[in-house]
Amino acid sequence: MPNTVIIGAQWGDEGKGKLVDMLSEQSDVIVRFQGGNNAGHTILCGDKQTILHLIPSGILHPKARCLIGNGVVLDPFVFLEEVASLGESGIRVDPSRLGISYKTHLILPYHKVMDAARESARTKDKIGTTGRGIGPCYEDKMARVGIRACDLMTPSLVHAKITRALAEKNVLFTHLYGCKPLDPAKVSEDLLAIAPKIIPYLVNVEVELKEAEKKGARILFEGAQGTHLDIDHGTYPFVTSSNTVAANAAIGSGIGANKLTQILGIVKAYTTRVGEGAFPTELFDATGELLQRQGHEFGATTGRKRRCGWLDCVLLRASVCLNGITDIALTKLDVLSGLSTIKVCTAYSYKGEIIPYPPQQENALAEVEPVYEELPGFDGDISGIHTFDALPQAVQAYVRRIEELVAAPVRYISVGPERNQTIVR
Ligand code: GDP
Ligand code: IMO
Ligand code: MG
């Protein structure tokens, strides 16, 4: 059985949630392997919209087993809120349906304070984080001072670690950032008060995956964010703090790298970005507004307006290479309806040269000029079309040209937010 990794090929919000939900139907286990509640994955089912931040998008399928891997940073308070809110809409979440790795690092209130303090201390160079404490939590993990989910079973350890963490962080809060210190006793108490609700979810994810594999289960790995937000390969420093590329599905869940057989790159038919950082094909005109309006491009986590621009095949070429993308799901093609021409960026002009891949120096992306090719646009509503051949010629030509430019096959074409608004080729 193929195991599929779903990753975003751009700067996030490509429609990963929709594809995970759709493919969950044929999957037994769905695993989140990185990021945290900076993600916002939207699923539309009939007139019911669900936005998931932490819990895998497979949860809407009653038979699927969902797992949160060691690579995720989990805010335990947000997790319980999400469980409760799913419960209110009739989706039962309990340890029989969902497991959390013992090794998952926890986001605590001081990570959020640090995130906000760092952002407000920056002047022109703000990153535009989601403010969810993601970066500071990963920092603590790397500094080997993080609190992990398994620690909840040992209250004295939680207390000792939090006391030590705050001894350092409170100095920064009060002396550098001018904010209030946090009381370690209160932070520990609040966390330990909810520990009994989290502990029943703890599982050994790698063993569970191994057992599932033995039974021939199909495993789906749900990526968050996008390739160009990757901490190593993204537009550093305007990135998130985890590896978002497909290979991290192995590390972030504890499965062997040879078990990742299909890498499905989700590509929006144009480009969007939330937060700061270079964006070569960004549009500041009526076309950009049309994409923003027709695509309802507002962040699913922070509600911020998403910046919009033409499809950038230079970034996508890099994404195919960085992830080993075997198939593409092209989403939101319906949004391009009404444009007389569609531009696609095929290369960059940089310091007098034409380059097919992004330049490597910090912020060099801000200095490139996109080289565009123009393709004919199309009109009318394509959201009810179910076969590739029935799509307008201009849409078919656009899809084929993308395949040539990025050297990967487009397997799924999404023409609307609903599960069934998807063409399988
Ligand atoms: P994710 O973070 O990658 O899961 O994406 P988001 O959920 O943040 O943003 C994608 C948005 O586009 C959501 O509101 C989806 O419901 C919507 N969407 C997904 N695919 C399509 C599509 O093909 N057409 C349209 N019009 N909307 C889509
Ligand atoms: P999904 O999974 C789009 C962006 C933030 C900011 C940068 C760093 O829904 O695609 P962070 O809070 O992670 O430290 O912020 O990353 N960002 C996202 N942009 N979609 C996301 O997730 C994102 N998660 C983080 O806007 O620019
Ligand atoms: Mg999103």
Structure description:
There is one protein chain. With 425 residues, this protein is an alpha/beta fold. It folds into three domains: 161 residues, Adenylosuccinate Synthetase, subunit A, domain 1 (Adenylosuccinate Synthetase, Chain A, domain 1), CATH 3.40.440.10; 94 residues, Adenylosuccinate Synthetase, subunit A, domain 2 (Orthogonal Bundle); 157 residues, Adenylosuccinate Synthetase, Chain A, domain 3, CATH 3.90.170.10. The protein contains eleven helices and 20 strands. The strands form five sheets. It has a ten-stranded mixed sheet with strand order 9-7-5-2-10-1-11-15-19-20, sandwiched between helices. Strands 14, 16, 17 and 18 form a four-stranded mixed sheet that branches. Strand 19 and strand 20 form a beta hairpin. Helix 3 packs across helix 4 and helix 5 crosses helix 6. The longest helix has 22 residues. The protein starts with a strand and ends with a strand. The mean pLDDT is 97. The site of guanosine-5'-diphosphate (GDP) has 21 residues, from helix 1 and strand 3.
Task: Give the helix/strand layout.
Blueprint: E1 4-8, H1 16-24, E2 29-32, E3 41-45, E4 48-52, E5 65-68, E6 73-74, H2 76-88, E7 98-101, E8 105-106, H3 109-121, H4 134-142, H5 155-176, H6 184-198, E9 202-203, H7 205-214, E10 219-222, H8 248-251, E11 262-268, E12 271-273, H9 286-294, E13 307-309, E14 311-312, H10 313-323, E15 327-331, E16 339-350, E17 353-355, E18 369-378, H11 393-406, E19 410-414, E20 422-424
Parallel strand pairs: 1-10, 1-11, 2-5, 2-10, 5-7, 6-8, 7-9, 11-15, 14-16, 15-19
Antiparallel strand pairs: 3-4, 12-13, 16-17, 16-18, 19-20
Bound molecules: guanosine-5'-diphosphate (GDP), 6-O-phosphoryl inosine monophosphate and magnesium ion.
